[in-house]
C-alpha cells in the first residue's frame, strides 16, 4: 500500500514540472524578471497537517487523520519522495507570452537534501544529468526536456529552456512565498501583465460575442425585455473589456486562522493604480447606507446590501417602472383607485430611479422568553412622501383606520406607526410573539420592527442614520438560530450546546463583499461550525431523520 501511495503521489509531483510545457520559456533574461502573470502558492506540509489536525480536533476526529499522517511521513521519508523539506511552502509561477506558445512557467519544490532527492529520482529510473548547476531530465510523458536547479533551498524546475531558472531572475523566496501571501493555498493572476497582443485578441472575441448578443436581443418583441437584454449585453461586454485593459491583480486565498479558528476563503481584485476601474471601486466603497449599523450584539441572522447600479441599468429600471405604472393605470377603470395608484407610484419613483440598493435586516435573540426581534431598514429618498400618502389613504379608507394606528411614537429622526395584523401568520408569531408590526419613516429611510423591542430598535437605528456599509454582508450565529432550525431537527439544540459550549462567536458564519483599493469577497466560518454539522451527520447504522 505504501509503495502504491508513493507512486501515486510522486508521479504527479515529477510530472507537475513537465506540465509546464504550455509555459515553456522563450524570452530574454530581462523579460523573465517581469512580474509573473500567475502565481500558485501552497503552505508547507507541516503547516497543512497542522491545519488538518486543528479541524480534526474541533470535530473530534483526531484518530481518523493518523493514517493520513503516517502516509504523509512515508511520502517524505524512506518510502516516499526523499529530500523534500516539509517545513517550507511550495510554489509555481508563470508568464503568458505574446504568442501564447512562448509562455513560461517555473515550479518551486522545497528541498532539505539534494543528494537524497536525486537518489529518489534514480529509484524511479530518472537519472538527471548535471552541467554547470543545471540538471536535465528526459521524461517519457513530456515532449520536451525538463530542467531544474537547486537554489535558495528550493528545486526550481521548468521545461524546454533553462533561461527562466537563471539565478539572476529567481525571486526571493522569503518574500515571494511569505505566509501572508500563501495562507494554506493561494492563486493570483495579474491582468496588467497580459501582453497587449493577447488582450487585443480577447477584446476582439468579446466584441464579436457582444454583436451576436445584441443581434439576438433585437429579435425580442417585448420592448422592455429587448432593452434589458441590450443593456445587459453592453454592460457585460464593457466590464470584461475594462477588466482586461485596466485590471490589476486577482487573488484567491484559503487559510485557517489559528488565533480565531476561522476557516477563510478570500477573493480580491484590484485595478491598475490611477485607472477608471480603480477609481470606480474606491467610490463603490465610500457609499454610506442604513444597512451599516443594523447588526446587534445579540444578532442571530443578518443580511445587508448597499451598492449602486450602473447608470444604464438605473435608467433601464426607471423606464421599466414608468412603463409598468402607465400600463397598470391605463387598465384601471376606477378613477379613485387610479388616483391613489398614481400617488403611491410617485412616492416610489425616486427610490427606483436612484439606482441604489440599500437594505438590511437583522434577527436578534432569542431573549429569555425564547422569542426574537426583527429590525429591517430600506434606504428610501422619499420616505416622508410615502408616509404622507399613507396618512391620506388611511383617512379615506375606513378599513385601513382599523389596521393602521398613526403616530404611536415620534422622535426628531423618525415617526412610527403601528400595523395590527391579527392574527400574525403562525411562522412569524412563533418567532417574535404576537406583536404588531411597527413601521418608521425618516427623511432618508423606511424602518420595520417586530418583537417586544421593535419601537426601541427603530428609534435607535433612525438616530444612527446612514453609516459605512459593505456592498454585501451576511452573518449567521448558528447557536442563536437553533431554536428556529430545531423545529425540523430536534438534535440541533444538543449539537449546538456541545459544539459551541456557550463560547461567544464560535458559531459564526460570515460572508462580506467590500470595496476600496480592492474589491474583496471574504467568506469565513469557525471550526466549531464544522463540529456542529458533523454532530448532525447520522452515525453508521443510524437512520437519518427525515423532515415531516
Computed structural class: alpha+beta
Give the N-terminus to C-terminus distance in angstroms: 46 Å
The number of helical runs is: 19
Quick one: overall form?
A: flat
Low-confidence stretches: 1-33
Can you summarize the main beta sheet?
20 strands, antiparallel
Helix content: 40-55%
Give the overall pLDDT as a whole number. Answer: 86
Rg calculated over all Cα atoms: 30 Å
Strand content: 25-35%
**Number of distinct beta strands:** 22
Describe this protein's structure.
With 548 residues, the chain is α+β, with helices and mostly antiparallel strands. It contains 19 helices and 22 strands. The strands form two sheets. The protein has a 20-stranded antiparallel beta sheet, with helices on both faces. The chain has a two-stranded antiparallel ribbon with strand order 11-19. Strand 2 and strand 3 (104-110) form a beta hairpin. The longest helix has 24 residues, at 223-246. The two termini are 46 Å apart. Residues 1-33 have low confidence and may be disordered.
Features:
flat, 41% helix, disordered N terminus, 19 helices, 548 residues, two-stranded antiparallel sheet, alpha+beta
What's the arrangement of secondary structure elements?
Layout: H1 2-18, H2 29-32, E1 38-42, H3 45-58, H4 66-75, E2 90-95, E3 104-110, H5 114-123, E4 129-131, E5 134-137, E6 146-151, E7 154-159, H6 173-176, H7 179-182, E8 185-190, H8 196-217, H9 223-246, E9 247-257, E10 262-271, H10 276-284, E11 288-289, E12 299-308, H11 311-330, H12 335-354, E13 356-364, E14 373-379, H13 383-396, H14 398-403, E15 404-410, E16 415-419, H15 426-432, E17 437-441, E18 445-450, H16 454-464, E19 467-468, E20 472-477, H17 478-485, H18 491-500, E21 508-515, E22 518-526, H19 527-536
Antiparallel strand pairs: 1-2, 1-8, 2-3, 3-7, 4-5, 5-6, 6-7, 8-9, 9-10, 10-22, 11-19, 12-13, 12-20, 13-14, 14-18, 15-16, 16-17, 17-18, 20-21, 21-22
Amino acid at each position: 500500500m505504501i509503495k502504491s501511495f508513493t507512486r501515486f503521489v510522486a508521479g504527479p509531483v515529477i510530472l507537475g514540472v513537465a506540465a509546464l510545457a504550455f509555459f515553456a520559456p522563450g524570452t530574454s533574461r530581462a523579460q523573465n524578471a517581469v512580474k509573473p502573470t500567475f502565481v500558485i502558492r501552497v503552505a508547507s506540509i507541516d503547516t497543512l497537517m497542522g491545519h488538518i489536525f486543528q479541524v480534526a480536533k474541533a470535530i473530534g476526529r483526531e484518530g481518523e487523520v493518523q493514517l493520513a499522517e503516517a502516509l504523509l511521513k512515508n511520502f517524505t521519508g524512506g518510502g516516499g519522495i526523499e529530500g523534500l523539506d516539509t517545513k517550507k511552502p511550495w510554489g509555481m509561477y508563470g508568464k503568458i507570452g505574446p504568442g501564447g506558445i512562448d509562455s513560461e512557467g517555473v515550479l518551486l519544490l522545497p528541498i532539505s537534501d539534494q543528494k537524497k532527492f536525486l537518489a529518489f529520482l534514480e529509484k524511479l529510473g530518472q537519472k538527471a544529468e548535471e552541467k554547470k548547476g543545471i540538471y536535465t531530465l528526459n521524461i517519457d510523458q513530456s515532449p520536451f526536456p525538463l530542467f531544474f536547479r537547486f537554489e535558495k533551498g528550493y528545486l526550481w524546475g521548468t521545461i524546454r529552456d533553462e533561461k527562466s531558472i537563471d539565478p539572476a531572475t529567481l525571486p526571493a523566496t522569503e518574500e515571494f512565498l511569505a505566509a501572508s501571501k500563501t495562507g494554506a493555498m493561494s492563486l493570483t493572476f495579474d491582468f496588467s501583465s497580459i501582453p497587449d497582443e493577447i488582450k487585443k485578441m480577447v477584446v476582439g472575441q468579446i466584441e464579436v460575442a457582444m454583436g451576436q448578443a445584441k443581434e439576438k436581443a433585437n429579435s425580442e418583441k417585448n420592448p422592455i425585455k429587448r432593452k434589458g437584454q441590450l443593456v445587459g449585453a453592453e454592460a457585460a461586454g464593457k466590464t470584461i473589456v475594462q477588466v482586461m485593459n485596466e485590471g490589476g491583480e486577482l487573488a484567491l486565498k484559503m487559510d485557517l486562522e489559528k488565533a480565531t479558528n476561522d476557516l477563510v476563503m478570500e477573493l480580491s481584485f484590484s485595478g491598475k493604480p490611477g485607472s477608471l476601474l480603480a477609481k470606480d471601486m474606491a467610490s463603490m466603497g465610500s457609499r454610506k447606507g442604513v444597512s451599516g449599523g443594523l447588526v446587534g450584539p445579540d444578532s442571530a441572522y443578518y443580511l445587508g446590501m448597499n451598492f449602486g447600479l450602473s447608470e444604464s441599468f438605473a435608467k433601464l429600471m426607471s423606464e421599466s417602472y414608468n412603463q409598468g405604472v402607465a400600463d397598470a393605470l391605463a387598465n384601471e377603470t376606477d378613477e379613485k383607485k387610479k388616483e391613489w395608484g398614481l400617488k403611491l407610484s410617485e412616492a416610489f419613483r425616486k427610490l427606483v430611479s436612484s439606482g441604489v440598493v440599500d437594505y438590511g435586516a437583522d434577527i436578534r435573540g432569542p431573549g429569555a422568553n425564547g422569542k426574537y426581534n426583527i429590525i429591517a431598514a430600506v434606504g428610501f429618498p422619499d420616505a416622508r412622501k410615502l408616509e404622507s400618502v399613507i396618512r391620506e389613504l388611511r383617512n379615506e379608507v375606513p378599513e385601513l383606520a382599523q389596521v393602521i394606528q398613526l403616530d404611536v411614537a415620534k422622535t426628531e429622526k423618525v415617526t412610527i406607526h403601528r400595523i395590527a395584523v391579527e392574527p400574525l401568520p403562525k411562522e412569524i408569531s412563533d418567532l417574535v410573539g404576537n406583536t404588531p408590526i411597527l413601521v418608521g419613516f425618516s427623511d432618508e429611510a423606511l424602518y420595520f420592527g417586530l418583537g417586544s423591542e421593535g419601537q426601541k430598535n427603530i428609534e435607535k437605528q433612525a438616530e444612527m442614520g446612514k453609516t459605512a456599509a459593505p456592498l454585501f454582508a451576511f452573518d449567521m450565529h448558528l447557536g442563536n438560530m437553533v431554536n428556529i432550525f430545531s423545529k425540523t431537527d430536534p438534535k440541533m439544540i444538543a449539537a449546538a450546546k456541545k459544539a459551541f459550549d456557550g463560547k461567544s462567536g464560535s458559531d459564526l458564519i460570515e460572508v462580506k463583499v467590500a470595496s476600496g483599493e480592492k474589491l474583496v469577497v471574504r467568506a469565513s466560518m469557525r471550526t466549531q461550525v464544522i463540529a456542529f454539522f458533523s454532530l448532525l451527520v447520522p452515525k453508521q447504522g443510524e437512520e437519518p431523520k427525515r423532515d415531516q
